[in-house]
Amino acid sequence: MRAFDRPGRSAVHASHGMVATSHPLACSSALAILREGGNAVDAAIAASAVLSVVEPQMTGIGGDCFCILAEPDGSLHGLNGSGRAAANATLDWYRQQGIHSLAEHPAHAVTVPGSVKAWETLLERFGTLGFDRLFADAIDYAENGFVLAPRVACDWQLTRDKLRQNDGARRHYLRDGQAPAVGEKFRLPALANTLKAIARSGSAAMYTGRIAADIASTVQALGGFLSEEDLANVSADWVELISTHYRGVELFEIPPNGQGITALILLNLLNKLQAANLSADSAQRIHLEMECARLAYSVRDACVSDPQTMQANIDGLLSDEFANALAESFNPAQRKPDISLPAIPQADTVYLTVVDRDLRAVSFINSIYMSFGSGIVTTDSGVVLQNRGACFSLEENHPNAIGPSKRPMHTIIPAMAMKNGKVEYSFGVMGGAYQAMGHAHVLTNLVDYGMDPQEALDHPRVFWGDDGTLEFESATTAATLEALSKLGHQVRYAGTPHGGGQIIQIDHAAGVLIGGSDPRKDGQVQGY
Based on the domain organization, do 167 and 276 belong to the same domain? Predict the structure, then answer.
């Protein structure tokens, strides 16, 4: 139980239904759907549509989506709604042009936006309502305006200069070249019209016709390859989930091209090295987590890609033998210097989770990658285009090298933890590359230390910067940083918090839902 004389919030308890998102307006819309009789799938799509309007720096219909769904009978379903590179995108062309990173070439980093196709695919199989009802609030906020929440306004301001560089971004997302401030009301009329078209005609309105032509022409005018044919060939694919066991629970993740396997490898290492024996706030726990994370992320960077080209065997990567081999290199008394670290760009994402009256659980994540994605906004339809192609490698023979109609390695990952064949936790953590680390950290907070969902999210976080220095959130004590420095780590306090997240726990014995929402965002939990 938390100390009520200290700042913080309690976990939310309810029994009929619950939604946890990164924005209050999305929570309200999703809860209304549940109260009307819609299920968790309906509510999740309604929430995601609202987030596409009120958190445009984080997510949108120009991005990608992944989902894990647990049906009331315990069956699990995974959906990969990530888009592909243009059919004309070849590694040889980029090498001939002397381009070494797509992050520096926004038009070439735009991949096919998979979100709307994923929403429709999910809805057709498991939903009960149509886009016309589920988009109603999103359309209203876009057409008539929404008030900027504090974190949204902060992120928007930080991305102002990026938005100034693109005609569509300036037109649709700035006022006289300035970002809107917290508490201001902002309208997105072009996006409202786009959402209306999708609500009427489904995903075909997004991937063919006027909107598709606007997307393709906007990208091509800036030198990119994305075509109307690429958009028309969009797909969202049902996938077989991957999992590992950790101290009584089984954690399920989306398989590659997502980085969920990184979280599973990390948990296997923590299990082998008995992380649960260390105190929650100790320097030794942080040392163990970060050294294991460095190993797991190095595996990710060497192996994870579109499954059509991924050469490593997933079962082998998740095996006890592989975990044992990795664990042998851990030194409890010293940081190992010779593990190569990945470069970590900042990224923006929204995660949400919904549980309905039948205990159907949806773990759902949607993203445009970096803040305001590529910074490119379509001229007429007002769609912010993602820059997920920046995750491709431009190294020859790398499994994640860019190629025609190929999916890049993806950072956004939903999670679902099962116990005795039933959902225990539906959860996810935002924050680009941090997400895999976040899944492991949050799950061990829940399982090893008995934290409730809110406590597990509130707990201080650490991750490395792009120079390998460990960056600690401000709640971490100076003594902890000093202890880790003595173990060989470079340390500093982080300039910004690490990610965000939401959790819904199902207490099956009591018939109660328990939710938490990350204080690092504007979000909340609502239930009834």
Answer: no
CATH assignment at residue 479? 3.60.20.40
Predicted model pTM = 0.95
> DSSP code of 468?
S
Residue 437 has pLDDT above 80, yes or no: yes
Same domain, 230 and 246: no
Alpha-helix residue ranges (DSSP H) falling in 347-471: 434-449, 453-458
- Under the phi-then-psi rule, with left for phi > 0, alpha for psi from -120 to 50, and beta for the rest, what region is 381? alpha
* Cα distance between residue 369 and residue 398, in whole Å: 22
Residue 175 sits in which domain range? 23-235+357-391
Report pLDDT digits (tens) over 7-42: 889 999 999 999 999 999 999 999 999 999 999 999
Is 9 domain-assigned?
Answer: no
CA 384, CA 391: separation in Å to the nearest integer? 18
**336 and 433 together in one domain:** yes
What pLDDT score was predicted for residue 347?
56
Domain identity same for 431 and 382:
no
Neighbours of 73 (CB within 10 A): 10
**E strand map for 327-436:** 348-355, 361-369, 376-377, 384-385, 415-419, 422-430
| Calpha distance 291→298 (Å, rounded) | 11
Instruction: Say yes or no: 134 and 71 in one domain.
Output: yes
Nearest residue to 203 (alpha-carbon basis) of 10, 329, 56, 45: 45
Tally of structural domains, the chain: 2
SS3 category, 90: coil
Polymer length in residues for the chain: 528
- In three-state secondary structure terms, 424 is strand
Residue 179 CA neighbour count, 13 Å, CB half: 20
Q: How confident is the model over 153-201, as pLDDT tens digits? A: 999 999 999 999 999 999 999 999 999 999 999 999 999 999 999 999 9
Q: pLDDT at residue 453 above 90? A: yes
In this structure, the dihedral spanned by the alpha carbons of residues 19, 26, 430 and 204, taken in order and rounded to 10 degrees, is 110
Residues 155, 270 within the same domain: no
The catalytic position among 59, 121, 159, 349 is: 349
**Residue 22 DSSP label:** S
**Residue showing tokens 């913080």:** 8
Residues 222 and 103 in one domain: yes
Per DSSP, the three-state class of 289 is helix
- Let me know if 349 is a catalytic residue: yes
Residue type, 371: S
Closest to 434 in 3D by CA, of 524, 331, 311, 518: 518
